[in-house]
Task: structure prediction
Amino acid sequence: MSTLHFNQQAQHPPCFIQLSTLGVLEIKGADTQSFLQGQLTCDVKAASWQHWLAGGYCDPKGKLWSTFRMVGDAERILLFMAQESIADTLTNLKKYAVFSKVTITDVTSEHPLYGFWGKQAAAELGFADSHSVQLSHCAANGEKLLLQVADDLVLIRGKHDTQNAPLMPASWWHAAMLEHGWVDVPAAKAAEYIPQMLNLDDNHGVNYKKGCYIGQEIVARMHYKGQNKRVTHCFVGHCGQLPETGDLLEKKVGENWRRSGAVLSAVRYHDNVVALFAVGPIDLEPTDLFRMQGQDDSQFTLCPDTQKMES
Result:
């Protein structure tokens, strides 16, 4: 299927996606594990080349620079994240790494990146367990890495035969992330939201028992004291102009409209259907009606339950 329909690709044959908007950071050296353990929200000691971990990187105020998927071991880690998060993450990691035996490098351009999305995509590539990783080496093509994001979605790093299938544009990857509940940090919103506001805890990307890391006190306080009042919601509807990061969503209250969220990202589907992520109050209801500020004829509702990353 070459047409993108909201929440239907998992029922259609898999297709390849060219991931021009995804980036990869490599951290390697004798102190890799101990250094990253004090930086990231996930338990780096659990990292392996068999199963990937979700995680985030915060500033001292507990606000996210990036969210990522991690694979690796004690001396070499790869972080897969939105390309627009690479610069801030790289800069801030290097700032704290001056006394550690590690090198931190943007290795995005070293290998091609693809998504493989559709019905039983993981099984077609030989996966059996969720969150699994396949790592192989070939003298001709070098390292190849496959991450099972979900039963219907695989992330591929390395040369792969895509000649018999058309490559879908990067918007398809954004759609896959949205439909699986994965929230990237837009560059315009770097260091603005705590992990819980971008649902990183729901995606198993925050370990509350691992000990100290940058921003840990704020993140833990929000969790244990229940102080967080905002999360990322998925909305679906129609609007003439595709919303951009920072655009405002309004909720209908009686005969009036009140601000109820800020857009993170949006995807346009077939028949001008638009789905988007927006950060808003936790207590929104399925019956609530929404519109984009400045687009009075737009209409949105909360998305029906879409797939989440598998635990």
User: Anything to note?
Assistant: Residues 187-302 form a domain with the Elongation Factor Tu (Ef-tu); domain 3 fold (CATH 2.40.30.160).
